[in-house]
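Technical annex B. To support the medicinal chemistry partners, we prepared a structural model of the target in complex with flavin mononucleotide, based solely on the information shown next.
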Amino acid sequence: MAGLFDPLTIKSITLRNRIGVSPMCQYWSEDGMASDWHLVHLGSRAIGGAGLIIAEATAVEARGRITPQDAGLWSDDHIEPLARTTRFMAQYGAVPGIQLAHAGRKASTEQPWKRTRDKPLTIDQGGWERVAPSPVPFRPGDTAPKELTFLEIRDIQQAFHAATIRAKEAGYSWLEFHGAHGYLAHSFHSPLSNKRTDQYGGSFENRTRFTLETVRIMRAAWPENLPFSVRLSVTDWVEGGWTTEESVELSKLMKSEGVDLVDCSSGYGVPSVTYPVGQGWQVQLSEAVRNGAGIMTAAVGMINDPAQADAIIGEGRADIVLLGSEMLRDPYWPFHASIALKKPGSVRMPLPYDYVIQPHG
Ligand SMILES: Cc1cc2nc3c(=O)[nH]c(=O)nc-3n(C[C@H](O)[C@H](O)[C@H](O)COP(=O)(O)O)c2cc1C
């Protein structure tokens, strides 16, 4: 039976434990560039002992940013500042990953701490036109996004391809495609946001076409021996929306396209949904995908207790646990978890810390 501190080998990569930092936008870039902030933020979590660190949703084109301050990888200029962070993370034992994303109809908003109006930014306010499978705004009453044409879909897929190649050049050894939280790919999945009548809308096959095509293009550009994951909103949690059963079917298809792991999140595709939030509330979704599709999964969502995290791995409900907000509170969570689980020594921080803090006796 595997435990939280057991290594995990996927393709040519071995994670030193099953603890990952969930991708978290910092909304702290200019023109998409990573900065000292990103080096310290990501670097601290590498020092803290995480096995995997997935850098924030990184836009494959400027239009695909959630806010003007999002990170990006749409130009070669973005590579070196990110490479600085991957070198540091790898030097201190963490596997550096990146989530490539396009925000679709949820793009062009303010940083969350400024979002008093909860409205998209207009062009005058420094925003831009949002794009989506269908001209259906995220919130009723907002300006409708532009419906993507066939050729525009191809352009975006090409942007994912180019960003994949840049991610490799930046030194990442784990790639994630963002197919969750109401952003572009998820908005193709859900019948609530996808009203198309062409080959990208309607049936399950058509609604998943954008994701499967994009995954295929990215997989072909990403080294075969490196892990590739997809984050899904496994369910919309709402009548008439995308379902867990559909996620299981999509995961089977993605597995045959070379996807190694499904990162199981949920929701945020439509507003005003009441989620069953609580300790480990999305673990059941990871379990459903893992058992139903026979693919490795990551569980995420209010995982903050070491015994809980260890049990999720031990009971085979996920292969990796990803921690989001808890990792912001405590970058040394893996170290603290090793003490709580009475497994001292299973997380070793770099020597300048380790020789002082390891419990003795
Ligand atoms: C500040 C912040 C930024 C986030 N940014 C992203 C992101 O870039 N991509 C993503 O897939 N999820 C993002 N999320 C969601 C987290 O990855 C995670 O799924 C969610 O916070 C639930 O985990 P938690 O309960 O451990 O925080 C973000 C969450 C937070 C708190």
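Notes passed to the chemistry partners:
The mean pLDDT is 97.
The two ends are 28 Å apart (CA to CA).
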